Amino acid sequence: MVEWLAAFWQTYNTLVYLLFTHAILALSIYITLNTGLLSVGNAAFAGIGAYTSALLTMKLDLPFPVCLAAGSAAAGLVGLAIGLPVLRLSGVYLALATLAFGEVIRVVFLNLEVTGGAMGLNGIPPKTELWHLVLVCAALIYFFERLRRSRLGRTLDAIREDEVAARVMGIDVVYYKNLVFVLGAMLAGLAGGFNAHFTFFVSPREYGFGPAVDILAFAVLGGTGSYWGPILGSTILTLLPELLRFLADFRGMVTGLVLFLVIVYLPNGLLEVPDVLRRAWRRGAKP
Fold first, then answer.
1. What percentage of the chain reaches a pLDDT higher than 90?
2. Which residue, 192, 182, 194, 187, is CA-closest to 49?
3. What CA–CA distance (Å, rounded) separates 204 from 117?
4. SS (H, E, C) 65-78
5. Residue 68 phi/psi, 5° resolution?
6. What pLDDT, in 10s, does the model give residues 155-195?
7. For 40-88, what is each residue's pLDDT tens digit?
8. Does the model's pTM come out above 0.90?
9. Which residues pair with 122 in a beta bridge?
10. C-alpha–C-alpha distance, residues 112 and 120, integer Å
11. CB–CB of 200/123 below 8 Å?
12. How far apart are CA 18 and CA 11, in angstroms?
């Protein structure tokens, strides 16, 4: 048994790490979507966190917690600077603005000498351990569970449901929208820092348009009715490529088909499945 576990960990340790970092990324977009903000800049924030923490580790040899905190804070500061003008927009306009921001960040990484340019940074010390990720994810689940029942959570719900009505009720909508935008950026930056220190390598292509869409897909697949939805979506989309390895080049097509079917038949995500089954059972139980 011990030998099997050792062999399993040696083969799949990177996949396990990805499950947890993707869960953090999924929660980073959940908090903005749950407030009615369609932002797709989380990949860029993850890149800021990854590069910042990696450079501090490689250049200054600072303690790992300090590097992680600095990467998360850097992403949060950039999020604050971007959020102040950008959050005046909403819907697809906000999505396009944050998408453009992500491309700007990618090009900056691509052209700076300190970030390694197109080659990225290689040889990042392996600092991330499984217990780090488990602890952070457990803390985030506790936070979101408390948030759901708190006054802040109800305020965010009110902004999502009707921003104008929330403003009339005296809620400082601008403040709360910037707050969740910065929190989402910090979570994405934290995930990027963890990712950089177990993959040993970061490059600009890891934080461009494709990864931004992947993070959004976590929430779309799982659903945003609860924080468990994006976690479920990230878990499925992380495991699918591995489970479909036998399909070789067709894995991407099958993953896309799964997303398509969920969007068409379960617009509220996989969290809607129990309700759908319950309604179907009630219809079948009627005489």
1. 40
2. 192
3. 8
4. HHHHHHHHHHHHHH
5. -60, -45
6. 998 988 888 888 888 888 899 999 999 999 999 999 999 99
7. 889 999 999 999 999 999 999 899 999 999 999 999 999 999 998 888 8
8. yes
9. 201
10. 10
11. yes
12. 13
| Contact call for residues 35 and 182 (beta carbons, < 8 A) | no
Whether 7 contacts 24, CB under 8 Å: no
> For residues 83 and 178, is the Cβ–Cβ distance under 8 A?
yes
- List, as one string, the DSSP characters of 139-181: HHHHHHHHHHHSHHHHHHHHHHH-HHHHHHTT--HHHHHHHHH
Angle at which helix 91-111 crosses helix 64-86, to 10 degrees, equals: 130
How far is C-alpha 11 from the geometric centre of its chain's CA atoms?
Answer: 25
The pairing of beta strand 201-202 with beta strand 121-122: antiparallel
Cβ-count burial of 60 within 10 angstroms (0-12 exposed, 13-18 middle, 19+ buried)? exposed
Binning the chain into helix, strand and coil, the percentages to the nearest 5 are 80, 0, 15
- Cα distance between residue 264 and residue 134, in whole Å: 34
